[in-house]
Amino acid sequence: MTEPAPLDLIHLADQEGNRCIVRVTGRxxxxxxxxxxxxxxxxxxxxxxxxxRLKLYxxxxxxxxxxxxxxxxxxxxxxxxxxxxxxSLGVHVHHDGWLSIHVSDPDRLxxxxxxxxxxxxxxxxxxxxxxxxxxxxxxxxxxxxGVHGRSPRxxx
Length: 156
Fold this sequence. Notes:
Elements: E1 7-13, E2 19-27, E3 39-47, E4 50-58, H1 60-71, E5 78-82, E6 88-93, E7 99-105, E8 109-115, H2 121-135, E9 140-144, E10 147-150
Antiparallel strand pairs: 1-2, 2-3, 3-4, 5-6, 6-7, 7-8, 9-10
Helix pairs in contact: 1-2
């Protein structure tokens, strides 16, 4: 079985060339039971003052958290991804429709930039999340702390 093509979980870009993309590239450790459901992603940040590619590892709970963050997002609110293990990304929605994007990799880079997305960007990002989950569904269950097994929902 071949690995799915990379998918953008987050894709925020504007006419001026500012962009922040979280591109899921595949499973972090395919075939290793404890790491099978950890997804590896590239965070691509580009503006007139920065052009960076950083790594982000996404656990199923990160995708669940991103879904919840998107559901509660609106003017004056911030959605966060990552952060408890290294790289963090925050998207703050301003009342005028602009977004402030904050990316911080404690060992490498911290950057903040603004962009004005399409009006339906939240719904689009929910669809992106659904596509990522369909491409890389969970295959492992933790039966006890530190004890992993194949998920009964796993396709053969």
